[in-house]
Amino acid sequence: MEKKKEPILRKLLVFSLVPIFTLLLLFCHHQQHSFSSYSYEGLDDSGNKRSDEFLSEREVETLKLHFKLRRLVNGKDLAKFDTTGYSYDVDDFTEISVISKPVIYDQKSSTLYVPSHEATRPKKTMVKPYPRREDPTAMKWVKPVQILMGKASRIRPPACQIKHDVPALFFSFQGFADNPFHAFNEVVIPLFLTSWHFESRLQFVLTQYRREWYWKYARVVEKLSSFDVVGINADTHVHCFPAAVVGLRQFLWKTYNVKVKTALNLQKPKVLLVSRKGSREFLNEDEMVNMMENDLGFQVYRALPNETSNLNKFGQIVNSCDMMIGAHGAGLTNGLFLPTGAVMIQIVPLGLNWASDHYFGEPAPGIGLKYIRYKIWRNETSLYEKYGPNDPVVSDPASIWAKGYMAVKKAYVDEQNFRINLGRFKSVLLDALKLIGDSAV
Fold it and tell me: What is the pTM for the complete model shown?
């Protein structure tokens, strides 16, 4: 199984991870500025000791840790967090608990004890530390961490066996983490976003250990933490930490605030048509839209090139659709925002079979999409009209590939447009409708 997954991982890196990590750097830059305006008594804005304050080194380190934990707290909860040292945030995608006080973790029962003088009576919270809360199928495999907070005499924590000097970050490898796309979007990137500002001064706690996943991404984990991971062996001890974070911050959908679409529309499907200008454009696009709306009763949203640049807005639009249609190109990367079970129809240009299949066709099912490959016939491409049926550009694409990528780019990427066969295209759309019906069952 491992040999089959590695090629897909490389393909995903080509078409999705470069823009994702670019956005990730922007996110980190934003986070630094978002929290720089907060300060604490005795510390300056950078978390360093003020020259006019008399705090012990231990107090300074405690405040610095609180400052770092505070970055993970939702803005509306900051005041309460500063008072109680506890925050619990839940939304459509994830739940995360941030605890800025000593905790005791019993591995055997997956229980995190939080002794607190503020709590008048014991409070129990169950947190599943995997950021895909919107998907019951993924979450049913995730084991929850039970958080018990209250006076020590009431919650009765077990005696500490192993003491740690850095905070704990709890997360799970379950859900869909065996799929490369999900592994990056739901574990690797959220793990980075949740932990990077601790500068490796925290300890990861795996609530569920999967050997094949851990060793595949061990180098990532080791770069983010300077300490041994708790939970990679069969030992069950009671651990004490000065603070804890239970759960991970989501990245892609959370960053763009996408509202989760939970049901597909079989009666009147909404179709997103990726409209292109200049190359690989649909020369009879108006006729295609007319056929979809009037003959099939679809709702068609025509996404113009300038729209796709605003992901905050466009991500919401894509997630509201049941079907996405587009020629091979960067616009199809927005399929990341489609709801689970939606259909992606890729128009595969003449001469671009390999790129179309490897960059979008094979990864699509791995992110929960139904996929249809619409291969352009020779009489549907503008190259047929330009060069004629016997020119190697039309009759022998392999010979063009033999000349190198620049020849391929000129012929098939930059100069090719399409006039879609409406009868054939309609048949494909009806097949797509059946796939939507299968997903809706």
Answer: 0.58
